Amino acid sequence: MIGVRTKLVALLGNPVGHSLSPLMQNAAFMHLGLDVCYLAFQVERKDFPLALKGLRALGGLGANITIPFKEEAFKAMDWIDPRCRGVGAVNTVVFRKGALCGYNTDVFGVKKSLEKLGSRKEVALLLGAGGAARAAAVALIEMGYPFLFVANRHEERAKKLQEDLLTCATHTSIRTIAWQEIPHISYDVLVNATSLGLEENPWSKEDLKGCLAPAIEKEASVLDLVYLPYRETDLVRKAREKRLAVLGGKEVLLLQGVESFRLFVGMEAPYEVMESALQAQSGEGVEA
Ligand code: NDP
């Protein structure tokens, strides 16, 4: 029950209407009897710094940050978790004694998902060079992948990612490749961190076939960060049809949410409760 002592955790982004985080986090707070409430706020760009400071002034516990503010949030922090410095983006903010402390739990979500997939730690192919791709690249580096291909529609953005990650990729060799080269390389795990697969940004038949061809050849694992509310993405469906080990973006969402929860309240999150909340909403299982 919301009362005078209820603490607030917010999701700040634009848009936020599609987010499953309030559902998942509130289910967890309720399950543990915590007097905390999670609300989503659609914020205009010019108001983002004000929203963050306002939340702190209201005694909020913290916030999740989503598109398009993750990079701006990174710059606004008083303290950054050293593990997310290479990412350059923050998706979780915790207020500690008035200080804005920034984390990136997408890295955790990707790492745990890849561990769950049990993928071979040899060659990885990362699609994308935006915020999600940066988190995925740091996850792959931290997991000790010795070789990472990065392919992005605009290759110069992939080169920038490569450059920015050079200092933390001491044991990972990163090579950028053109999108057209993908069908001709060999890899053990494919991570899609582009927005390809969303209803408004569908895969072309040729791209989907080209990206998966090496995976089928080598029985690689596939992790798609993209998720849709009521069905599997085309990449997940196709990979499953080809009997590859595959996980979709809801798994990453769940795992990053579990870690954010721990940071907000300092307690282990009730994983099954959060998973059930997601499943109930989508009317399907979280892909495993
Ligand atoms: P950005 O906008 O920062 O990056 C988008 C990426 O997608 C860029 O690499 C862009 O390439 C690429 N892209 C877009 N359209 C196309 C296309 N038609 N063909 C090829 N590449 C394309 O977004 P984010 O990195 O923040 O997020 C990417 C996706 O990951 C989103 O769909 C988001 O929902 C998902 N995500 C999921 C999470 C989860 O918990 N499951 C967590 C975070 C993100 P280019 O640079 O050339 O434009």
What report would you give on this structure?
The radius of gyration is 19 Å and the shape is globular. The chain is of the alpha/beta class. Helices cover 40% and strands 19% of the residues. A six-stranded mixed β-sheet has the order 2-1-3-5-6-4, with helices on both faces. A six-stranded parallel β-sheet has the order 9-8-7-10-11-12, sandwiched between helices. The mean pLDDT is 95. It has ten helices and twelve strands. The longest helix has 17 residues, at 249-265. Helix 1 (21-31) packs across helix 9, helix 1 (21-31) packs across helix 10 (271-282) and helix 9 (249-265) packs across helix 10 (271-282). The structure holds NADPH dihydro-nicotinamide-adenine-dinucleotide phosphate. NADPH dihydro-nicotinamide-adenine-dinucleotide phosphate binds at residues 67, 106, 109, 128-133, 152-154, 157, 193-196, 198, 201, 225-227, 249, 252-253, 256.
Structure summarized in a few sentences:
The protein has 288 residues and is of the alpha/beta class. Helices cover 40% and strands 19% of the residues.
Topology diagram in text:
Blueprint: E1 7-13, H1 21-31, E2 36-42, H2 48-57, E3 62-65, H3 70-76, E4 79-80, E5 92-96, E6 99-103, H4 105-117, E7 123-127, H5 131-142, E8 147-151, H6 155-165, E9 173-177, E10 189-192, H7 205-218, E11 221-224, H8 234-241, E12 246-247, H9 249-265, H10 271-282
Parallel strand pairs: 1-2, 1-3, 4-6, 7-8, 7-10, 8-9, 10-11, 11-12
Antiparallel strand pairs: 3-5, 5-6
Helix pairs in contact: 1-9, 1-10, 4-5, 4-9, 9-10
This protein binds NADPH dihydro-nicotinamide-adenine-dinucleotide phosphate (NDP).
